[in-house]
Amino acid sequence: LELESALQTALDNEEFCLFLQPKYRLDSGDLDSFEALVRWRHPEKGLIMPNHFIPQMEQGEMIFQLGRWVISHGLNIIRGLERAGLGSYKLAVNLSARQFCDDKLVDHLQACLQDMPGDRLELEITENVLIHNSELAASVMKQANNLGVTVALDDFGTGYSSLSYLRQLPVDVIKLDRSFIAPTNESEESRHIVTSVIDLAHKLNKYVVAEGIETKEHLLFLQEHQCDSAQGFLLSRPIDEDELPDVLAKGD
Ligand code: G
Ligand code: G
Ligand code: MN
Ligand code: NA
Fold this sequence. Notes:
By secondary structure, the chain is of the alpha/beta class.
């Protein structure tokens, strides 16, 4: 209960902030997109990670308010970078199954994207979004698509029914879970899974992002197998929004 009221205060006082993790295109090497990762900048305790407050917020209504804040604040950051001449980037936002069914979500997307092309925003959802309420989820996805907003299946391969979702839903991007990337050096099985998913995704006209790139070997392997984009600690850690302009100004 104490945490709950502290979290409501945090929302009202805008104590949340975003860390942005770059995604790089593997053909050109360009940074073209950032994933927004929320943190709570607690006035006394410092930076608190999402696994310490998202589950609590998921119990009630606060998670909806947080989700809408991440979208509007994240897009404001993207606008700020563009105005400062630091580049035009896409923003990817994580939405839980419940957040994706927020009945104010689509109106909020539309409002936030008044002065920006819809395809500057991507929604990262996990496979369990569809277990929750698959008809509603499919309808939200279509409405998002109509605004130009793209949808990525996060942690791809770790849930169940992944393949039927690919067939049924207007998903644009597959994010290959890092548990498949990590063992590619040692395990031929993992290499087969990764290359087959890339191949399948491309045959279905989908874009593939690999997450959890931690070694040069991972990067080379994915480049060699035509993965579209990559993200991971080797390339960049998530960057504090306050430090982002400086990091970009200094260049790669
Ligand atoms: O860096 P990291 O510890 O941020 O993230 C841990 C987990 O929290 C990841 O699974 C990530 O998807 C999730 N997460 C980070 N930011 C958000 C957010 O804004 N909304 C939701 N629903 N999950 C988030
Ligand atoms: O569930 P989701 O894929 O949204 O998770 C994002 C989480 O992954 C964040 O906690 C982020 O800090 C973490 N992350 C990003 N890159 C790497 C990486 O290369 N290795 C590991 N272990 N975690 C990563
Ligand atoms: Mn994600
Ligand atoms: Na993921």
